[in-house]
Amino acid sequence: MVRENREAEALQDRVVHIARVAKVVKGGRRFSFSALVVVGDGKEKVGFGLGKAAEVPDAIRKASEQAKKNMQRIVTVEGTIPFEVIGRYGSCSVVMNPAQKGKGIIAGGAVRIITELGGVRDIVCKVHGTKNSGAVVRATLDGLRQLHTIEDYAARRGIDPTTAQQNPHASKQEKKAAKAKK
């Protein structure tokens, strides 16, 4: 119980988008609100939720509760992502590139919120396709879900991490020398 309270205190939530939606009924329109909220601990976990209610605070509360249930871990290496990745959802694609230390978060809107709350300090992102907030959030989390460390990759393939990591731009002679060392 004490551990859950500490985790709940450490989580930060940010509202990405609030929309007023209308349902047309016989007597006119009924208005309600939907809220898209991102929750993260600022270190390695982030999640999103969508809540709908008649009032804005209730919608935000529902969304943050759902986001806490949908938390996922983000793999970072020295404050950035380990490699370039493209996250996709529908017609939205988010291209995320690792950045040098001190560059900062070069991203807009929903991607910036997710990376800040996920603990990524240096990253360069570009959104292609639709700029719909819901699609951008889902595409960003899809891309972050694809990340893994070189140790995880090597363990999955059953090889040594030093041999798994090769420079794609190395010359043929360098690659032959690396194979000869094996």
Give a concise summary.
With 182 residues, this protein is of the alpha+beta class. The protein contains seven helices and eight strands; from the N terminus they run H-E-E-E-H-E-E-E-E-H-E-H-H-H-H.
Model description:
The chain is α+β, with helices and mostly antiparallel strands. The chain has 2 domains: about 70 residues, Double Stranded RNA Binding Domain (2-Layer Sandwich), CATH 3.30.160.20; about 80 residues, 2-Layer Sandwich (Ribosomal Protein S5, domain 2), CATH 3.30.230.10. Helix content is about 35%, strand content about 30%. It has 7 helices and 8 strands; from the N terminus they run αβββαββββαβαααα. The strands form 2 sheets. A 4-stranded antiparallel β-sheet has the order 1-2-3-4. The longest helix has 14 residues. It is elongated, with a radius of gyration of 20 Å. The mean pLDDT is about 90.
